[in-house]
Amino acid sequence: MEKPTDTTPLDLHSAAWASLADAYGGAEKIPALLQSLRQGDAEALDDLYGHICHQGTIYPASVAAFPHLVSVAAAVASPDVRAGVLSLAASIHESMRLDEPLQPSPYDAAFHAAVPAALAMAVADLARTEDRLSGIYLLKAATAFAGFAGAARVLSGFADEEFSLACPGCGVELYVWPVPEGLSAATADPVFTPSAKTAPVIAGPVDSSAQLAAFVWLKAQTAALPCLDDVAFRLPFLFGSARCAECGHAFSLMDALVGDASD
Q1: Residues 6+ apart with CB under 8 A from 241
Q2: Which domain holds residue 231?
Q3: Residues 6+ apart with CB under 8 A from 14
């Protein structure tokens, strides 16, 4: 199917919304939710997550809604609401890049045309934020819009203060935790199993990593952000070399995390 070229978003008054699928069936409720969100209704954002990015799953209505989300983000006055809207848009963008592809639709071109504005907003807001958690989610959003969807999905581990993955060698679940020296990989959750086998992560980046461009981009974005000093410090470890304390297998941590997050 030829890629659509019309970059005009689907009109919010169009009857076509009812024929688009969201998590609950037809998407006829999406225009009203987008309009409520534009007026600053934070509850509408939660409802939209449920309809168009339910547990990370996206739908044809998600694609049609994306440019409207970017427009809403530009219009809302509250930085917190804007960050939430950009985070939802970024989650849709991640899923478009990483998960099972949707069938091409007439709204793909409008989706892609809205990405540069989303990136510009996320980067500008990131430069102004003084809150660590907001900074992490804006960094995650900007990273997705910049084209590094895999790395973006992994960055939520900074908010959770934990990264987890299956060892590429033996399959055991590994828990990667921040430590004063950087990051450490344990064979069990250290909170519940303090005696778990651990191995330090060696700072990188790993030269052969498929994620090198993402590392360079992230280092540039976090270089002068005091609220993300700890993130900037640990980025070389996140893109470094880990070793499984169970089987001894060494691997590029970020490549394995991206692969695990995309499965």
Answers
A1: 201, 202, 204, 206, 250, 251, 252, 253
A2: 157-262
A3: none
pLDDT (0 to 100) of residue 103: 87
Residues 137, 167, single domain; the answer is no
For 47-73, how does the pLDDT look when each residue is reduced to its tens digit (9 = 90+)?
Answer: 999 999 998 899 999 999 999 999 999
Strand partners, 250: 243
As a whole number of angstroms, the distance between CA 139 and CA 214 comes to 12
8 in a structural domain: no
pTM of the model: 0.92
If asked whether residues 214 and 244 sit together in one domain, one would say: yes
What mean pLDDT is reported for the chain?
A: 93
pLDDT at 184: 96
- Residues 28, 137: one domain? yes
Residue where a domain terminates, one of 109, 127, 147? 147
In order of 78, 89, 208, 219, 231, the CA distances from 236 in angstroms are 33, 27, 14, 9, 9
